[in-house]
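Quick question, first post here. What does this chain look like in 3D?
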Amino acid sequence: MYSPTCPADAEPASRAEMAGPGPHPSVDAWQMVVVHVEGRWQPALLTQWRRLPSGWVAHVRWRKSRDPGDGWAWLRHDPATLQPLTPDDMDAAGLGA
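> Answer (accepted):
Ran it through. Tokens below.
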């Protein structure tokens, strides 16, 4: 569940590992999550999981901007920084209406 404190931002996946040899099984997913990036918790859309030799990474988009390379990343899965977003979590994060 969402926690109002977090020690650090979500860690990006290693580019070298993402491009490395071997199979990297992927699973499409459309799930709302809360992710700790840019120093704060933000709602985001998780669109894909990918299995790397070191563990799972998630493709996450937390904002849209005119720059297509901005506001998304492949992030290492860590329950401390990337969590499913529930209605209760939205209220706790101050994201509710």
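The chain has one domain: 15-93.
The first helix runs from residue 15 to 19.
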